[in-house]
Amino acid sequence: MINYLFPLYRPPAEADNIILQATYGCSYNNCSFCSMYKDKKYQVRDINTLFKEIDILSSLYPNAHKLFLADGDAFSLDTEYLIPLLQYIKESFPKIKRVSAYASAQNILNKSQAELRLLYENNLNLIYFGIESGNDKVLKKITKGVSSSQIIDALNKTSSSGIKISATVILGIGGEKYSNEHIKDSAKIVNATTINYLSTLLLGIEEGDKDNFYKHFADFIPLRDSQIIVEQKNLIELLNPTNKIIFRSNHASNALHLSGVIPKDKSRLLSELEFALHVGEAAFVPSIFRGF
């Protein structure tokens, strides 16, 4: 039996895949906007326990193709820990094609290029990365712990190893005061890197986290839905990636669901956003149907 320690989070794309909880919590756990792991103490799980759980999971799902390493940032694990774990996953799931994990800029930069390549060669070939914002003022106010230049360095370091990247930008996280800078600088990060997937989601602060959030971001004024759609439109207008990016804005938090490939579908996406702005609230997902 697998004894998951809840709450257990995973990206929407991992809904039907094997989840292996390699760590509990998040090694950083200081982002003021995030409540995911506030009630968990970061802990590296015993690898022999994981081997036993892999044995159980592989007996139940012998044909599994994809596996997600939870919790918040399994990329924080030492390479000397990850390689035997990845090798055991490969041996136990002969049809496995992809192992993925959340990753932060801090944890990527703490690994050498050779280590990243070794992880890629052992099937850890996709990371989920929260850009959140490309603006240094906003990054400081949300206590992200890294600068925009460090984010760019981490993303390019990851791409150079062969590992694919699914990145997110949070709409509204700059508030009214920093909205323009937030979007402009977030687009700069995307254009300066070669991420493979890009998603946008809407900022949502849990009630218990608001005091801490506003302590660091005292001049934050939340955006209305129409302002969020303007941010989305401005972001897409500014995207000029050097590679194809699969774009999604279909998270449960979003006011408007979009999908396409950039740059191929850029004009269509902008037309859909312009139409939504023209129609107004009737085009948006009702707030009661949004969540995290």
Count of domain modules? 1
Please outline the major beta sheet.
8 strands, mixed
How far apart lie the N and C ends?
Answer: 28 Å
Second CATH tier, the architecture: Alpha-Beta Barrel
Strand adjacency order, main sheet:
1-4-5-6-7-8-9-10
The percentage helix is 25-40%
Per the principal axes of the C-alpha atoms, what is the gross shape? globular
- CATH homologous superfamily title: Aldolase class I
- Please report the number of helical segments: 10
| Nearest-integer average pLDDT | 94
Task: Describe the oligomeric state of these chains in a short phrase.
Answer: single chain
Radius of gyration from the alpha-carbon trace, in angstroms: 19 Å
Number of beta-strand segments: 10
Q: What name does CATH use for the topology?
A: TIM Barrel
What structural category do the secondary elements indicate? alpha/beta
SS strand fraction: 15-25%
Task: Summarize the helices and strands and which ones pair or pack.
Elements: E1 18-21, E2 23-24, E3 43-44, H1 47-60, E4 66-70, H2 79-92, E5 98-103, H3 105-109, H4 113-121, E6 124-132, H5 136-141, H6 148-161, E7 164-171, H7 179-191, E8 197-202, H8 210-216, H9 225-238, E9 245-249, E10 258-262, H10 266-279
Parallel strand pairs: 1-4, 4-5, 5-6, 6-7, 7-8, 8-9
Antiparallel strand pairs: 2-3, 9-10
Plain-language structure description:
With 292 residues, the chain is α/β, with parallel strands linked by helices. It has one domain (12-283): Aldolase class I (TIM Barrel, Alpha-Beta Barrel). It has helices at residues 47-60, 79-92, 105-109, 113-121, 136-141, 148-161, 179-191, 210-216, 225-238, 266-279; strands at residues 18-21, 23-24, 43-44, 66-70, 98-103, 124-132, 164-171, 197-202, 245-249, 258-262. The strands form 2 sheets. It has an 8-stranded mixed β-sheet. It has a two-stranded antiparallel sheet with strand order 2-3. Strand 4, helix 2 (79-92) and strand 5 form a beta-alpha-beta unit. The mean pLDDT is 94.
